[in-house]
Write a structure and sequence with these properties.
Layout lengths: L6 H17 L6 H21 L6 H42 L14
Helix pairs in contact: 2-3
Length: about 110
């Protein structure tokens, strides 16, 4: 193991390995993906039954797709809030240091 790699390089190396494995067909994530999607189908059926509805397979699939989209949107919103919170707490800690940094590159010679 090469310990001279930066965290970003290690992450890139791991991503490369994962892409290589998936590209060569050496992983089988189909059962996990199916189980994940089936969860939303079960939720769609449970909600329909709780309302006294009888729905067919096409309607179950349609509702499951919307439930999946809602789930992913919920995750995206939570991630966005977490990034905003991290950014605002990060900017508070750098306020004192902002004045001590140079304003930009210095130029030699005369102004135009």
């Amino acid at each position: 193991m090469n310990s001279n790699l930066t965290p970003a390089q290690r992450s890139t190396r791991a991503r490369l390995a994962a892409f290589t494995q998936h590209g060569a067909g050496r992983t089988n994530v189909a059962p996990a993906t199916a189980a994940f999607r089936d969860r939303f189908s079960r939720l769609a059926v449970e909600e329909a039954v709780s309302r006294g509805e009888v729905i067919g397979p096409e309607e179950i699939a349609r509702r499951a797709q919307f439930l999946l989209r809602a789930h992913m949107s919920r995750l995206a919103l939570a991630a966005s809030r977490a990034r905003s919170k991290a950014a605002s707490s990060s900017s508070i800690t750098t306020i004192g240091r902002a004045d001590s940094r140079p304003a930009g590159p210095t130029t030699s010679g005369t102004d135009s």
